[in-house]
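Comment on the following before class.
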Amino acid sequence: MFRRLTHIALASTAVLVATGCQESTASSASALSSAALAAALSTVPVGYGDLSSSYVGIASSSASSAGLWVAGGREASFNRGDLMGGGLQDAFAGGIAFTSRGGNHGPFAGGLSCTTGRFDAATGRVVCAEETHNGVVISRSARYTTTSGTVQQAFDSLTTNAVNVQTRVAGAIVFNRAADSASTGDKGKDHWGRGRGPGGRLLGDTSTVLMASTTIASSSDRTVVGLAAGSTQRTVNGTSAGQESTTGTSSRGSFTATRAVGDTTTGVIVPVVTGTQSYPTAGTVIRSITASLTYAGETPVTLNRREVITYDGSATARIVITLNGVTQSCTRALPRGALSCS
C-alpha cells in the first residue's frame, strides 16, 4: 500500500513536469486531488538547510533560484530512502564516519560556524552576527559547556562536552515569471519552456505561476551531549519548525499556498567508534509536513505526511509513515537502504 501511495505522489510530480513542458498559460480548472501537492512533500522551505534538523534542505545562500514548493538543489526529492523533505540527514542514518574521537569529528560534531561572533556573558551564549542571503535573515547562537557544566566562550574539540545551537531564519522571496524566465538551461533552452522556472518553480498542479510572494519563518533548537574527549556516545535532542506562506497569481487564477514543517529528535544515541561509520542505536525522530493549496473560488486541498523513525540498536530503523490518514509500517537498512513496507 505504501509503495502505491508513494508512486502516486511521485507520479503526480512527474506529471507536473511533463505537463509544464508545453509552453502555455492555459490550465485545466478540474478539481485538484491531494496527490497534486506531492511536490510540497519532497522538500522543505528555503533556508531550512541553515537549521539543525533531520531534513536535507539547502542553505539560504544557495537559494537565489528557489521558489514555490521546491527549495531547489539536487536534493529536492524523495531521493534518500523514500523519505520526505529531501531525505534523512546522514548523521541520523549512520552515514558519517568518526575519523577521530575529537568533538569536531563524526555525526553531530562541532560547534557554531560563523565568521563574526561575540560571547554574551548574560546568557552564556556565543552569538553570531546576523546574515542575510537572498532576502532571508539568519540568526544563530550557541552555548558550550564542559562535562562539569562550566560555560565556555568558544568550542573546544577536547573539553567541550555539550553544545546547544539555536537558529532562526525569516524572510521573503518574490517571483515574477516575466522577469525570471530569461534564464537559459540545457542547450540554451529557456527554463520555462522545459516546464520549470529556475530552481523548479511549480505549483501543485498543471497551472503556471505568473507572480508570487513567499514568506518563511523557521527555527531550530538542538542539544548534543557527549563531545568531550573520552566520551563513548553522543546523545541528541532537538526540534525544528517552519512556516511557509505564498500568495500569487497563476494561469488558473489567484492562489494561496502554505506549508508547515517540523521535526522532533528525542534521545537519539550514536556510539563513538573511531575509524568507521556509526548508526544511532536508540531514540526517535518524528517528522511532519502539511501542505495546503487554495485557488480563488475553489475548495482548499491539503496533504499531510508524518514519519516516525525509531532506532532499536540494530542496523535497521523502524519507520511508521502516515499519509493523509493512511498508516504503513516500514523498515530501512542503515545507512542508506530503501524502505521495505509490509
